[in-house]
Design brief:
- The complex is a heterodimer.
- By secondary structure, chain A is of the alpha+beta class.
- In chain A, about 40% of the residues lie in helices and about 20% in strands.
- Chain A has 16 helices and 16 strands.
- Chain A has helices at about 40-45, 55-60, 65-80, 85-120, 130-135, 140-160, 180-210, 210-215, 260-265, 295-300, 305-315, 330-345, 400-405, 405-420, 425-440, 445; strands at about 10, 15-25, 30-35, 170, 170-175, 225-230, 240-245, 250-255, 265-270, 275-280, 290, 370-375, 380-385, 390-400, 455-460, 465-474.
- In chain A, strands 1, 2, 15 and 16 form a four-stranded mixed beta sheet that branches. In chain A, strands 8-7-6-11 form a four-stranded mixed beta sheet.
- In chain A, strand 13 and strand 14 form a beta hairpin.
- Chain B folds into two domains: about 5-75, Ubiquitin-like (UB roll) (Roll); about 100-230, Alpha-Beta Plaits.
- Chain B has helices spanning about 20-25, 80-95, 110-115, 155-160, 195-200, 220-230, and strands spanning about 5-10, 10-15, 50-55, 60, 75, 135, 140-145, 165-170, 175-180, 205-210.
- The longest helix of chain B is centred in the middle third of the chain and has 17 residues, at about 80-95.
- The chains are: A alpha+beta, B alpha+beta.
């Protein structure tokens, strides 16, 4: 008779996943694994399609961050055409990406993660969600929802719809920012700044009361990767790639995404549809690196906008070299929201965004093209190989959550070691393990290019392989 | 020319001999859905969407190729016709790979518009998911067989307006395929004049201008009619 503990599904993340916790003979946690159990096959069924359709097809990977795929795909298209897109198009793409980062980060912070640290780990699961947050603090919940709306409206103003706008295309974008759109975005800014301030105040208090979480929720050395500008400033759509380590030293800089296979390897594990990328020069699994808000803030020297830069200074003081606790992804997310709003504000005074020279025209000039962009959860790569007529021969997608896969495993193991004893899993412990995953704001639909809700399944596995305990939610 | 009197949906109508039921109905303001019909070229009755009921005739007749006759009593709308039209549309959707959301013609597609207007809410038949290729060998245009409904409009405009005869139909049944010249890649079809009339005629996203992205393929059908009218009325020939 096997006894087992399963956490399934993992809730309040985007997608469907399962966690296995392995016990040793003494009844302590030996290891833990995070499995993504969905499969979608975008890389395969896109073969044969014209590259011009790829931005619209691949953005269907996700309903939360379609813009990230849209932009990475359009950039891969630019590379196939071997063109420099008009400057206005580049700025407009950036504006949409900022809207995407703001809306997704607001969703992660207010809707998905805040219920844990604001309402408490031990709150009953039925209240530990955005509705519980509304009951506890209506104004905060409302402000969070509206902040997300602000980001969504930027996307809609540019692309005509909030989800899956077919707006960025190989060579540029379709439409400029209208005067009416500019006025609408501008009108949002004071409220967006005010909400961010409330969130920062809340977060500061949370950090005071959550020192333990900062210590054990994914606090370990690893590499960090993200885009940076030429001067080392925070980047989200242009720039080149940088790797830094947990001491804060830059180990590789200004790497060209076209050669990403030279420095990123992908390991495939038998128990998950999620591929595990690693930094090639260090090999697998030593080359484990993290991406996303925490990584972007670790690799950059400055945000490039004053308010966010002031916060970045405080953030950097939390680490020795790099900030290594994944619990601080939440903090990094808030700083990126603030930077995003500051950059949006700056763009509102830029007349170039109304320019109608928006699209470079060319055929296929390169048979392979890679597009890279920073999605809210981290760097994504779209790598297309086409024939001379522009039909896809090969597609490789590396997405943010995949790159955080190894870090998520470590985080889950670290939390489980602290909270799991014996052969049962108490629910609040389960929630802490889940939160370890939530820190990364993973999007499992993206990572496996998979469909579904985010149920969680946790198994506690004995040394002989039998399942001791199992918690499942769906 | 002798005039014929007939009834369409209870309306008494006088029509010229030789006119089709579709022409007469449209002149009288009665809308009959069509897909393969295209102003400016002859009709072939391929799509079966314009089927109408004629009193005294057991089978349904296509309005586009049925000539008017004295005393005809025609019904263009009934539960039976709506059922067949929906079924025809569902079969068209099931036959090839029509994915509106990522199609170049999304929002400007006659098949999509018909599905909406005829109340097609879902497809009851299993999708066949056939494997068709995309031909983007031509300098200017592309052909995606996944989105072709075999209406043959492109073939008719190519032969009878442009006179090039590049486009043809090969194969049988659902395996029929629009080909260029003797089934060569479009880019190698020597007879093609690159006039683009076929692209202008296509009701779906099967034929498109190269480089267009999702929803960007809009067509100007009036141009075809303009060319045909100008030619028939000899508008381009100086007195």
């Amino acid at each position: 008779m096997s006894k087992r503990i399963i956490i399934d599904p993992v809730t309040r993340i985007e997608g469907h996943a399962k966690i296995s916790i392995y016990m040793d003979d003494a009844g302590n946690v030996a290891d833990a694994e995070f499995h993504v159990v969905e499969f979608r096959g975008f890389e395969k069924f896109c073969e044969g399609r014209p590259y011009t359709e790829m931005p619209a097809i691949t953005q269907r990977i996700c309903g939360i961050c379609p813009v990230s795929h849209l932009l990475a795909s359009a950039k891969a298209g630019d590379a196939l055409m071997a063109v420099n897109i008009p400057p206005a198009a580049d700025k407009l793409r950036r504006l949409m990406n900022l809207g995407q980062i703001i809306q997704s980060h607001a969703l992660s912070f207010f809707h998905l993660s805040a219920p844990d640290f604001l309402l408490g780990w031990d709150t009953a699961p039925a209240q530990r969600n955005v509705f519980g947050l509304i009951a506890a603090n209506k104004e905060l919940a409302r402000a969070g929802i509206r902040l997300r709306q602000f980001g969504q409206e930027i996307i809609e103003i540019l692309g005509d719809k909030k989800i899956h706008p077919a707006w960025a295309v190989p060579g540029g974008v379709r439409t400029a920012l209208s005067d009416e759109g500019r006025a609408r975005i501008r009108a949002w800014l004071p409220e967006a700044f005010a909400t961010t301030k409330v969130a920062f105040d809340l977060w500061k208090k949370t950090m005071e009361t959550h020192q333990r979480e900062i210590q054990i929720f994914g606090n370990f050395p690893s590499l960090f990767m993200g885009l940076v500008a030429e001067d080392g400033s925070w980047e989200h759509h242009g720039g080149k790639l940088r790797f830094s380590d947990s001491s804060g030293s830059i180990i590789a800089d200004q790497l060209d995404e076209q050669n990403y296979l030279d420095f990123i390897g992908e390991s495939v594990q038998g128990n998950s549809y999620l591929k595990s990328p690693y930094y090639k020069p260090l090999g697998f699994p030593e080359g484990i690196y993290r991406v996303g808000p925490l990584a972007r803030l670790n690799v950059c020297q400055q945000m490039g906008v004053p308010k966010a830069d002031a916060e970045l200074k405080k953030f950097k003081k939390l680490g020795h070299g790099a900030v290594t606790s994944s619990f601080l992804y939440h903090y990094a997310r808030l700083i990126e929201i603030l930077a995003g709003i500051e950059y949006v504000e700056r763009y509102m005074d830029d007349p170039e965004l109304s320019n109608d020279d928006l699209r470079a025209d060319a055929g296929i000039n390169s048979l392979r093209g890679v597009g890279v962009s920073e999605a809210p959860r981290g760097t994504i790569f779209h790598d297309y190989t086409v024939d001379r007529n522009g039909l896809l021969q090969k597609v490789n997608l590396i997405v943010a959550t995949g790159q955080n896969n190894l870090a998520m495993n470590q985080t889950v193991a670290q939390i489980a070691r602290h909270y799991v004893r014996g052969s049962t899993i108490p629910e609040p412990m389960l929630n802490r393990v889940e939160h370890g995953i939530r820190c990364y704001d993973p999007c499992l639909s993206c990572s496996t290019h998979a469909v579904g809700q985010m149920p969680l399944h946790v198994q506690l596995i004995a040394p002989d392989g039998s399942v001791l305990s199992e918690v499942e939610r769906g | 020319m002798a005039a014929k009197t007939l009834t369409i949906d209870g309306k008494q109508i006088t029509a010229e001999e030789g006119a089709t039921v579709l022409q007469v109905a449209r002149e009288a303001g009665v809308n009959i859905p069509t897909l393969c019909h295209l102003e400016g070229v002859y009709d072939v009755g391929a799509c079966r969407l314009c089927l109408v009921e004629v009193a005294g005739v057991a089978k349904l007749l296509p309005a586009c190729t049925t000539k008017v006759a004295e005393g005809m009593d025609i019904k263009t709308d009934s539960e039976r016709l709506r059922k067949y039209r929906r079924m025809t549309l569902e079969l068209l959707f099931a036959e090839r790979n029509h994915v509106c959301a990522v199609c170049v013609s999304n929002g400007h597609c006659e098949l999509q518009t018909l599905a909406y207007s005829q109340g097609m809410e879902h497809v009851r038949y299993d999708y066949t998911f056939p494997k068709w290729n995309v031909d983007t060998t031509h300098r200017l245009f592309g052909m995606d067989h996944n989105r072709c409904v075999l209406c043959s409009r492109c073939v008719r405009v190519c032969w009878h307006i442009e006179g090039a005869g590049t486009k043809n139909v090969s194969g049988r049944g659902s395996l029929s395929k629009i080909i260029t010249d003797l089934n060569q890649p479009w880019g190698q079809a020597a007879s093609c004049t690159e006039c683009g009339k076929c692209v202008m005629a296509c009701p779906t996203g099967a034929l498109f201008n190269k480089g267009v992205t999702v929803g960007e393929m809009e067509r100007d059908r009036d141009k075809l009619e303009f060319i045909v009218t100008a030619r028939e009325k000899k508008q381009w020939i100086a007195e």
